Amino acid sequence: MSNTPKIAIVGTVGVPAKYGGFETLVENLVRYGAAHxxxxxxxxxxxxxxxxxRPVRYQGADLAYIGLRANGAQSILYDILSMLSAICRRHDTxxxxxxxxxxxxxxxxxLTRAQIVTNVDGLEWKREKWSxxxxxxxxxxxxxxxxxxxxxIADNQAIADHLQERYGRCSTVIAYGGDHARAVAPADISDLxxxxxxxxxxxxxxxxxxxxxxxxAFAAMPDIPLVFVGNWDNSDYGRALRDKAxxxxxxxxxDPIYDPARVRAIRDRATLYLHGHSxxxxxxxxxxxxxxxxxxxxxxxxxxRYTTEDAACYFADQNSLYRLVLEGTVNDPKIGQALQxxxxxxxxxxxxxxxxxxxFYSRVDSR
Length: 367
Fold this sequence. Notes:
Layout: E1 6-10, H1 21-35, E2 41-47, E3 57-58, E4 61-66, H2 75-88, E5 93-97, H3 105-108, E6 115-119, H4 132-148, E7 151-154, H5 157-167, E8 172-173, E9 198-202, H6 211-219, E10 226-229, H7 236-245, E11 251-254, H8 260-268, E12 270-275, H9 284-290, E13 296-299, H10 302-308, E14 313-315, H11 318-326, H12 333-346, H13 349-365
């Protein structure tokens, strides 16, 4: 076997990144590979509908296209077809991001000697938006990923603990980088009419992210401005929160902003970051904001405590968040400084890339 492994990355929309956390991970793995000429040969599987131009290479990586959408109802079949294609092309390792397609792993394992490395993401089946058959499939896929993968990656120690306790499976903990959030110069955002300083929230508007809790707490503090960026119009839940927030002048709700330079400028003005995520593992938005040296108030759950090494402030309900802010507990600049030190030590793409590539080589060398 060649000492240069052939790695297929499956389970995302693709690159260039234009969607979410896993896509940002792949983008940075590809860039890391391009910066290390002796690295593995990468192939990234992409959703053809998302890339009308369909380039064949990006940053030194080969691109392969599957004619299905990577999200929604087609996601399971998209992942399975991507893995099957990668097997047929005789890749040495498949890096599978997410468990959707892992429902087919027992069969696919019989077709290949390739190493299967699966990043299980968060505990997707626990999210409130899933129920019934969808929740069962995701839960079953997680179990099959734990059982049939050669290596399981957890992005957070709490996820690793879950895999050990539930399936008796040891996993490798590799988080996400966040330093790209400050790598771009800030844009002019004067058109947004924002205050010069404010508390900031930024996430998908879903119940498990405790958006309603955060808005209610700040509605009770009319002298403290809150800017909250999210996809409010994507659900009845989000639209109801937006309508309710209109009664409170200190609450500014913005639609999603994807331009990195504008997001950088919005983050630069924040004096406090609110992180309400209660499900999942290491959240990309959290490790990105930790790079800015701003105090963070995070929902009190094991995932957030592991990510922040217990150095943030934590709230469990509206009243505890209200007290943190009103009493000034979160105003201590040492909180932000401690979080920034953690981010620079643990959550840079140089560190994360090195961990993944070391794993790729170790799997090939062990065969």
